[in-house]
Amino acid sequence: MTTANFFAPFRRIVLHFPDNQPYGLRSIDDSLLETPELQQEIIAICNEPLLYNRLFRERLQGQPYSIENARYFLSWARDGWRNHGWFVFLILDPLDHVAAAIDIKSNNADEAEIGYWASSKSRGIMTNAVIALCESARSAGFRRLYAMVAPDNAQSIGVVTRAGFAAAGNAVRDGHTYLRFNKDLTN
Ligand SMILES: CC(C)(COP(=O)(O)OP(=O)(O)OC[C@H]1O[C@@H](n2cnc3c(N)ncnc32)[C@H](O)[C@@H]1OP(=O)(O)O)[C@@H](O)C(=O)NCCC(=O)NCCS
């Protein structure tokens, strides 16, 4: 397996749609200060109903997203940058508050899965964030990225479609059927 690699700390600007406000895409590496404010911002966003229902209700068996979940997320993200195995980023708004997160789940250059979430307060950030991540991933050596999206997740299907991913059939994981979307980074 060929591996791709980003170097930490990674930072780039992503423009928010449609007002072009500059948000910051940054690696969650050891240089990120894990303050109580940062933890609380992540907790608040991950408990937003749309996001919680989509990503966490089943996994957390209906329990709220907690401080332990936020600590685990940040520690898992830092581990990824330490061992160059997976790459997790925060997206900060112009006032440096957490707006969203996005990740590449492995360092397999041939194909790696992406995932993301965004606060409804920053609606309009994710398409441009995925486009920016794809550009940076190409430079990091990735040849293809893919996303697994629930068939009823119209917002996420919109994100990958606007970012130029192509539908590539269905895939079953953990008993759930997902639509797979691929983005070829070699051309
Ligand atoms: C899916 C999710 C990340 C989308 O975040 P978002 O910031 O609202 O997404 P977008 O950047 O696409 O912005 C949404 C709106 O801005 C518009 N937009 C954003 N960037 C745009 C661009 N570059 N050009 C044109 N329109 C754009 C979109 O058309 C969309 O408007 P519409 O719904 O009226 O069509 C968010 O809803 C979320 O976190 N959902 C729960 C978790 C989840 O589903 N994660 C994905 C699992 S696969």
From TrEMBL:
Residue span(s) of domain N-acetyltransferase: 33-186
UniProt keyword annotation of Transferase present: yes
Record's keyword terms, sorted: Acyltransferase, Transferase
Gene Ontology MF: a single term: acyltransferase activity, transferring groups other than amino-acyl groups
Superkingdom of source: Bacteria
Species of the source: Dictyobacter aurantiacus
Family matches, as Pfam families: Acetyltransf_3 (PF13302)
The name this protein goes by in its record: N-acetyltransferase domain-containing protein
Similarity comment: Belongs to the acetyltransferase family. RimJ subfamily.
Annotated PANTHER family: [RIBOSOMAL PROTEIN US5]-ALANINE N-ACETYLTRANSFERASE, GNAT FAMILY, PUTATIVE (AFU_ORTHOLOGUE AFUA_3G00765)-RELATED-RELATED
InterPro entries in UniProt: Acyl_CoA_acyltransferase (IPR016181), GNAT_dom (IPR000182), N-acetyltransferase (IPR051531)
